[in-house]
Amino acid sequence: MTHADDAGFDRRMLEALVCPVTHAVLEYDVERQELLSRNAGLAFPIRDGIPVMLLDEARRIAD
C-alpha cells in the first residue's frame, strides 16, 4: 500500500478541493492515487503529487 507522503500528495490539500462538476467533497484513493467524486462518478488522477482536476483527464468510475 502506498502512503500519501510517499506519493508527495498533501492530504491537507484535500480539504480545499471539491469536485469541479458537483462541488462536493472528494475522497482520496491511496492505492490508485486518485481523488474520487462519487456523486459525479469520476476519478481525478494525482500526478507527481498534484491533483489533475480536469474533466478530460478524469476517468469514469462505477457506482
UniProtKB/TrEMBL annotation:
**What InterPro entries does its record include?**
Trm112-like (IPR005651)
Q: Which organism is it from?
A: Salipiger marinus
Q: Which domain of life is it from?
A: Bacteria
Q: Where is the signal peptide?
A: none
Q: List the Pfam families.
A: Trm112p (PF03966)
Family per similarity comment? Belongs to the UPF0434 family.
The record's section on PANTHER family has: PROTEIN PREY, MITOCHONDRIAL (PTHR33505:SF4), ZGC:162634 (PTHR33505)
Q: Could you identify this protein by its name?
A: UPF0434 protein SAMN04487993_1006158
For this record, an example GO cellular component is:
cytosol
